[in-house]
Design a protein that fits this description.
Helix content is about 45%, strand content about 10%. By secondary structure, it is mostly helical. A hairpin with a 5-residue loop joins β10 and β11. It has 19 helices and 12 strands. The protein has a 3-stranded antiparallel β-sheet with strand order 3-4-7. A 3-stranded mixed β-sheet has the order 11-10-12. It is elongated, with a radius of gyration of 32 Å.
């Protein structure tokens, strides 16, 4: 085992990148970079039945978007390749046969053997052996040779100790001990020559010099099997870091493992909703790790500098969408205005196209008002078409506005707006502000019914001046007249 820190992310290409997967990749990446080490991407595609086309490319694109950049991997290369398990079949076969020769594995012909063998299977106490009764564990060599000569298919199983315990140390959970009599003689090589996860990951981690393994707590019960394999081969095992699950909050306040019923759970889904990749990554970094300070906003470089294993928690983390909203809004506020306008334009749809150069002006109004890009359509929908609204919206106790008062103010507003020649925010204000002052009507009282008539809603991105400018003179006057007709 090399002294250099080397971590890996080894997903199965079976779908999108779940938040829990992203966190595993992120922690492995941050730890490697914090220790000037290497981070590898390895594709574990031995379960061909669940293989999803384009999933490998999807994984690579997700890591790139999250700014998690492997040093070695399928599309990068490296000294330890290939980095796709289905391309390493000869390697697994070689080591599986070594285990047979050393007495730590055996060929299992069950489901395709003699009646005598079937009888032994039926008679065996499968439960006491962890799910398989080990009927082929001690076959005579002559029987094995006969079956091989007949071409009977077989799997290769790991031969587990029948008694004793296996103890290993986990960084998060401490020492863990599991009794050997609970361990099944697991299949390590299937009939088609494909390795199982529990075998291939050990071979690959050793050959790729992986020093630290980050994965979920669901693999704790499998780890003794891995530890035994390391012992059988005489290899030093890596450091194990089993991360607690990411949970979601249920409607009744209870928590359960994060799933689709809680909302979007995939990185790409969250990006599609309008969350920034860097905000997602920042938030995910804090789901189970503490920087031991009050700081919450981190760049990737900050995370690399501060990440350490002693900040990991053994308690499950709860994914809070409201908290992610806050993170994202903080990232929005820190963005350059031109960049925000550029990134948000796709969510503005036809309205953004219609506004043309004015989109940057509207985007600046939205930048401090939204939590994610997909809130934009609801915020600006009234620019495309004035929504139907009730005249009750004109009531405002604070500013002492009623529909009757609005009927007095709107004609004054139309007269003032007709006098505006320079249709810019400054040009509008230069005429509007003094005219309101001359009218003797308080600013808040005057502006309220105009806002309602222009937008059909109480809350808008920007005030009356901004709405007038964005809607244009003709549309503004048209809407004010429509508002007046509605009141009458």
């Amino acid at each position: 085992m090399t002294n250099r820190v080397r971590t890996r992310f080894a997903p199965s290409p079976t779908g999108y990148m779940h938040i829990g997967n992203l966190r595993t990749a992120l922690y492995g990446y941050l730890f490697a970079k914090a220790n000037k080490g290497d981070f590898l991407l390895r594709i574990e595609d031995t379960d061909q039945k669940r293989y999803v086309d384009d999933a490998v490319e999807f994984i690579q694109n997700t890591l790139k978007a999250a700014n998690i950049i492997p040093n070695e991997g399928p599309d990068i290369g490296g000294d330890c390749g290939p980095y796709i398990q289905s391309q390493r079949m000869d390697i697994y076969k070689k080591y599986a046969e070594e285990l047979i020769e050393s007495g730590h594995a055996y060929r299992c012909f069950c489901n395709d053997c003699s009646e005598e063998q079937h009888s032994m299977q039926e008679a065996g106490d499968a439960k006491s052996f962890g799910g398989y009764n080990r009927a082929c564990r001690d076959l005579d060599q002559s029987v094995i040779d006969q079956y091989l000569a007949e071409g009977r298919p077989y799997v290769i199983r790991q031969k587990m100790p029948l008694d004793g315990e296996v103890t290993f140390h986990d960084v998060v959970h401490g020492n863990i001990t599991i009794a050997c009599d609970t361990l099944e003689d697991q299949v390590i090589l299937k009939r088609d020559g494909m390795p199982t996860y529990n075998f291939a990951n050990v071979i690959d981690d050793h050959l790729m010099n992986i020093s630290h393994v980050f994965r979920g707590t669901e693999f704790i019960t499998s780890t003794p099997k891995h530890v035994l394999l390391y012992q059988y081969f005489g290899w030093e095992p890596p450091v194990f870091i089993h991360l607690p699950p990411v949970m979601g909050k249920n409607p009744d306040g209870s928590i359960s493992k994060l799933s689709k019923r809680h909302g979007a759970t995939g990185f790409s889904q969250l990006v599609d909703m309008g969350f920034l990749p860097e905000a997602i990554t920042n938030y995910v970094a804090l789901l189970g790790w503490s920087p031991k300070s009050e700081q919450e906003l981190f760049s990737m470089e900050d995370l690399m500098n501060k990440f350490s294993l002693d900040g990991l928690s053994k308690s499950p983390a709860v994914f809070d969408y409201n908290k992610l909203d806050w993170f994202n809004s903080e990232y929005f506020k820190a963005m350059d205005a031109a960049e925000f306008a550029r990134e948000s334009k796709a969510f503005g749809g036809i309205i953004a196209e219609t506004l043309g150069e004015k989109w940057e002006y509207l985007a600046l109004l939205l930048q401090t008002r939204i939590h994610r890009f997909n809130e934009i359509p609801d915020q600006i929908g009234f620019f495309k078409e004035l929504p139907s609204y009730d005249i009750d919206l004109y009531n405002n106790k604070r500013n002492k506005v009623t529909p009757e008062k609005a009927a007095e103010i709107i004609p004054l507003a139309i007269d003032i707006i007709n006098k505006i020649e320079k249709w810019t925010p400054e040009g509008i204000d230069d005429i509007l502000q003094p005219a309101i002052a001359d009218s003797g009507i308080k600013m808040g009282t005057f502006m309220w019914p105009i806002r309602i008539a222009l937008s059909g809603q109480k809350v808008t991105p920007g005030g009356v001046t901004e709405l007038l400018y964005l809607l244009g003179k003709d549309e503004s006057i048209h809407r004010l007249n429509c508002g007046l007709d509605k009141i009458k």
